[in-house]
Amino acid sequence: MNAHSPTLATTLWPVEGRLAWLRSILLVVGGSLLLTLSAKIRVPIWEVPITMQTFAVLLIGMAYGWRLGAATVVAYLAQGLAGLPVFTNPGAGPAYLLGPTGGYLAGFVLAAAAVGWLAERGWDRHLLTIVPTLIIGNVLIYVPGLVWLHQILVTADPAKDWATTLSLGVTPFLVGDALKLALAAALLPAAWKIIGRRG
Q1: N or C: which end of the chain has fewer CB within 10 A?
Q2: Domain limits of the chain?
Q3: What is the C-alpha to C-alpha distance for residues 177 and 52, in angstroms, rounded to an integer?
Q4: Phi first, then psi: what are they for 51, rounded to 5°?
């Protein structure tokens, strides 16, 4: 794998100089809109409705690269912080970011940066590398999410344990996340194959 592979975004939209800045701005705006839309999509499977937001976070990170991917997620969170209705549940502003899902939202930035960094090294092009890339991204969403959720639960009731946190913050979402990871693992290598044939 190359030390620095071009991302899907730069491959599909190759520009230089000032146009590269314009491309970055448009990608950040488009990506934040995609995150908002994905937050509102609810797929009624398993125990709880599943949104497509983690799928969008990982897809944006891999397609954009680590800097632009993380910047897009930060822009999305800034919109929510400013009061725009961009999140899955009703509400916005600082109180929402400090609520039960705040850790997962912070994990979005870590995940986009990590999978973007790996994508810049070609890890989004083959099934054997994209699967661990997606798993790493998902773990980076779950870990801060669970730590923050646990703190909120324990603050409200010191008797709460990690088993309760896991049953609320992970277990209901495992099936949906596995399906989303499978979809992303199929889409990215397929996109690169199509680009390779056209090239």
Answers
A1: C
A2: 8-198
A3: 9
A4: -90, 170
